[in-house]
């Protein structure tokens, strides 16, 4: 018997993904900004998708809560700069990077940027009309950009779900499931383990733990959704 999901329930699930990927992309695409930290710290992290079903996500949330209880990154400039430096030191430089953020470094025999891996990711972005403003300045296979791509595809899926365009929903969900398996899941686990081991703040240890476990859980959800019949609202009345 084919499983079914009401369009309203699918929309609620997609909003949860929107929330999760927005947080993850913001903290991994560039150094933390106080403006977003203020918004982030006002949120109830226990509402993060799968938080009550996954010990790894809960552990990451607890790491972040312990950190922000001890360090006032909004009002103490030294605390904020320490957090800012933690991300910079790991993923930007100026020294050798303990946590390189590019897929190419993890999956290619020759760990070089702007080669086949970067080009494949760029072509996928372009297929959906996404193009980086500064092409060849930052490699498209940066983990923050890949998370941003999933975030944007999920937003398109939300728009399609609200319009009840079932074929578009299926197409966009398949694209996300494929991108997760062909790109993010091929290097994110190793990236996360490196960040957990090398981060000097519990904040980024927590972010890495959440990312590590969330991507796995989200992949399972996408696979399930692709085998579930979506029921339009008119069929529920």
From TrEMBL:
<protein>
    <submittedName>
        <fullName>Dehydrogenase</fullName>
    </submittedName>
</protein>
<dbReference type="Pfam" id="PF02613">
    <property type="entry name" value="Nitrate_red_del"/>
</dbReference>
<dbReference type="InterPro" id="IPR020945">
    <property type="entry name" value="DMSO/NO3_reduct_chaperone"/>
</dbReference>
<dbReference type="InterPro" id="IPR050289">
    <property type="entry name" value="TorD/DmsD_chaperones"/>
</dbReference>
<keyword id="KW-0143">Chaperone</keyword>
<dbReference type="InterPro" id="IPR036411">
    <property type="entry name" value="TorD-like_sf"/>
</dbReference>
């Amino acid at each position: 018997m084919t499983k079914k999901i009401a369009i309203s329930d699918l929309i609620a699930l997609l909003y949860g993904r929107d929330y999760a990927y927005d947080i993850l992309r913001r903290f991994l695409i560039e150094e933390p900004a106080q403006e977003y930290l203020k918004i982030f710290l006002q949120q109830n992290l226990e509402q993060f998708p799968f938080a009550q079903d996954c010990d790894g996500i809960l552990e990451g949330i607890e790491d972040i809560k312990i950190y922000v209880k001890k360090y006032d990154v909004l009002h103490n400039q030294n605390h904020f700069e320490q957090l800012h430096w933690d991300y910079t030191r790991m993923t930007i430089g100026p020294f050798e990077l303990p946590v390189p953020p590019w897929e190419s470094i993890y999956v290619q025999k020759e760990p070089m940027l702007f080669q086949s891996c970067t080009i494949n990711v760029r072509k996928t972005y372009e297929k959906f009309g996404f193009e980086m403003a500064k092409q060849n300045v930052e490699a498209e296979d940066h983990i923050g950009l890949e998370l941003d791509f999933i975030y944007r595809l999920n937003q398109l899926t939300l728009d399609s779900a609200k319009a009840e365009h079932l074929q578009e929903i299926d197409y966009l969900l398949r694209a996300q499931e494929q991108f997760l398996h062909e790109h993010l899941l091929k290097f994110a686990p190793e990236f996360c383990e490196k960040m957990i081991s090398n981060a000097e703040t519990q904040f980024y240890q927590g972010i890495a733990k959440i990312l590590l476990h969330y991507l796995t859980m989200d992949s399972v959800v996408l696979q399930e959704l692709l085998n579930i019949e979506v029921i339009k609202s008119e069929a529920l009345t």
